[in-house]
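Teaching assistant here, posting this on the class forum so everyone can see the example we discussed in section. The complex has two components, and the goal was to see what a joint structure prediction looks like when all of them are supplied at once.
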Amino acid sequence: MPAAARWEHFDHGADIGVRGFGSTPVEAFEQAAMALTAVVTDPGSVRLQEVRRLQCKAPDLESLFYEWLNAVIYEMSIGHILFGRFDVTINEGQLTAALTGETVVPERHQPAVEIKGATYTELRVARESGGRWYAQCVVDV
Amino acid sequence: MDIGKLQRESAYRWRIQPAGAMRVPGILYADEALLRDMDDKVFTQLSNVACLPGIVGAAYAMPDAHWGYGFPIGGVAAFDPMQGGIVSAGGVGFDISCGVRTLTTGLPRERVEAVKAELAHELGRAIPAGVGSTGRIRLDESEMDAMLTGGALWAVSRGYGNAQDLERIEEGGQCLHAEPSAISQRARRRQRDEMGTLGSGNHYLEIQHVVEIYRPEVADGFGLGMGEIVVSIHCGSRGLGHQIGTDYLQLMVQAAPAHGIDLPDRELACAPIRSELGARYLGAMRAATNCALANRQIITHLAREAVGQYLPDASLKVLYDVSHNICKEETHVIDGEPRQLFVHRKGATRAFGPGHPALQETLRVHGQPVLIGGSMGTASYVLTGTLQSESLSFSSACHGAGRSMSRHRAARQWQGRQLLAELKARGVIVISPSMRGVAEEAPGAYKEVEAVVDLADQAGLASKVARLEPLICVKG
């Protein structure tokens, strides 16, 4: 993993913000999705057993990030699945991703809370002055 | 919040003067102590709501108001469709028709104490809770449509509960004018195996006991006796509601320019009530409301089965079922004239007073029960609607305490196992699949519900009837 790629959470009242960093928007998107997993469980506890593929599209990077997180939340919700790896490509506003993970095992994952949806609050995809990208928003839990 | 920015109307009522694009004032029901603890964002969000087209009277904040999405949580606002009024997906929230249902049992606390551990275990087994849990009911497309239009009435017709239950649910257990065709395939798919599940976060099923009665004649009318056991359920419309919230928030943001709506905050996304999108959202939201009503009805049935195994003579009667994330079409008298308004209550409870024509006859004497949910280990309250709340807040009151600390901080401050041991020592058995979830929901991470309920009572929004404390809590 490139040194610039990492994720973190930030506080928002009753809910929680997810933020991913990377040397490209793609890395920042992948890391923010990892932060999403970390809202529910320790990403390190997720075994990489099943792959889900998804696509989404939007006219700009921020809208695409919002679509991306909601698409991941949807996959987590319908599959009762947690993901520990995200492989994203973005081509002309079209995002394609492979999500790798496993079905929730409550005893092992100790899942804290389910995520209802991504929000527009604190939604930003931008570059820091040092050139590193970040992608973030608050998610409703 | 900076109290200096507010005009004091009384010790319990404060005003934000209309400024800039605000069409009406903001009114906050709180005392100085509650206001000091309130986030400044409540001021901003309430002021933003006051700018929305067709708003009537004022934008109100209940005493438990805190920072939400677009609308503050604990926000109430009414819109007139005849004056370009809007409906807002953000003003309803992601968990459409999340609410509280309380059932009376008529049994004294001692009866539960005798079987407490076994009953707690059985409730934990019988009621699916937490991330990844699934219900036993699978609905095909036509059954899904029947559920989405029928609500609790549908659930009763399928054997979950009885007709008497429906008399004690808002709208008789069925929200009319639901439009299943306004719901996306994704929303339906998210609900496929989630009927009869509690969810996670602050959702719960609790066995509680009545520890204090403030108005004996009303408590008696509600079937609440001192020391008696009640069952309370707090949950909503599950994945279906979450996806409808997600879908329509985005559609309303995209359509705002075409509707001539300037959004100060994207989360305020809304559409005119008299627009195609507004009508579609209302149809979808009402269907999600039916989903929440059906869900609480199924969980009621599961709770009856579990309780019946250990207390076969228990008769679980619905005291009431209230939704606290919702937009309802209601008649309100403005300047002497009755008007049809669309009242948003985001983290607020409808609180009709005695004699209100929309209430079922058995409730008209004392007013509508207002159910205030606590959190694991803290008290819940039953209040009743007042006559004056109509002029104070479109007959609305608070819904709970609200968090005082983020999940992140709570998880750092407490450990799940230790909390469970502490609560057990205080006589509360908590059943949860996740110790991290328990830590994030620590009672200490919530504001004190007492201050919120006392303020609602003092301000006249609703009147305190009884205080409930938990004995068993099933958490997601």
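For the discussion questions: DSSP finds 17 helices and 19 strands in chain B. The CA atoms of residues 57 and 335 of chain B lie 10 Å apart. Think about how each of these relates to the inputs above.
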